[in-house]
Predict the structure.
Amino acid sequence: MLQYFPTPYPDELWYSVMCRYYIRSGCETLLTVKSRNHFPIRLFFPDSSIMEIVNQLPEGLFSVRDIAINHTLFPYFSRMYPQERKQELINGFSSSAMQTDNPEWRVIARSMPKLKYCPDCIKADQKRYGESYWHREHQIPYMSICRKHGCRLKEHSCKLRQEFTEGPILPEFIQDGTGTEYFTQPYEKTLADVLYSYLTLPIDAGPTQGYSNLFYGLEQEYQHIRNSRVITLDTHRLYADLKSFYGEKITRGFFGKSMPQYVPMKLRNWEFTTPERYALLAAMIGQAPEITFGENQRISHEAESIRVREIRFPTMRQKADLMKAVNI
C-alpha cells in the first residue's frame, strides 16, 4: 500500500501527480522509484504506471480509465482515431503492455521534450492548494496561451529527456522570474478554445461515418468545380488564407510550401490521425467542435459517397417539368 499518495488536482497531468507523490514520500529520484517498484514514467500518455499505482491504493479509490482520460493527453491524441481503435486502447489501459502499445505515441513524444506553464496559474495554485502543478491543457501541442489568464505560456525544456524523470519537477521549481507576457496573436484565443475542446469532449466524439462537416464548412468558402462534375476545394486560396491567418511558419509546418491537391480528399475522409490540421482549419472558419464531430450533417447533402460528390445538372425532361410547374 502506498503512503502519502496525493489526490489529482483538476486537469492535473499524471506526471505532475507522480512528482508530488515523490516529494511527499521522500524518494530521491523518479528513476530510483522506477527501478525499485517498476513505475515507468511518461510525460503525456497513459502507461502501466497508472495500473501499478491503482493496484497499490485502496480498491475503488481511483479508476485507471478515468486517470488516463482525465489526467493524460490520451483524449486529444486519440481524437481522430476510429472508435474501434479508441476502444482497443482503452481496453489496454489495465495491461502491462500499455507502455509500448502505441508506436504512434512514441513518435509524437520525441517531438515534445518540454513542459509548459502559466506564471499566473502558479500563483493561483499556490494560493489555493499551497503548491503548483502541471496543467494538462497547457501541454496540448500548439497551445500557446493560458485560456484562463490570457497570458503566454512559458516552456521548460531539458537537454536530455531523462532529466524529467531524474527528479520531481514542478512549475514553481523552474519558473524563470521574468515578467508575464500578455501580448497574443489574434488567432491564439480561437485556436486555444478549439484545442481545449479536442481534449475535453467526450471520448467517443471524433470522425463521423460517411461525411465531414469540416469539409462541408470549408466547401462553402473554397468550393472549386473540377472537370465540370467533381467538387473539391480551391487549395491555392485556402493556403493563402491560412498563411494570412496563422503566418507562414505554422502553415508550412502542417501543409508544406503549398497545399497538395490530395489534402481535401484526406480531410473529408478523416485520414489525418493527428488533430492539429483539423483544429487549425476549424478555428480559421469558426466551426465549433460540436459541429465538426456532430452526428448531424451541417448542410443537407444527398446520401452518396463522400469521396466523389457530383453536381447533377437537370435533364431536359426535368427542365420541362419545372417549366410546367411554374406556368401552373
Q: What stands out?
A: The mean pLDDT is 82. The CA atoms of residues 140 and 195 lie 7 Å apart. DSSP finds 17 helices and four strands in the chain. The beta strands are 114-117, 154-157, 223-226, 230-233.
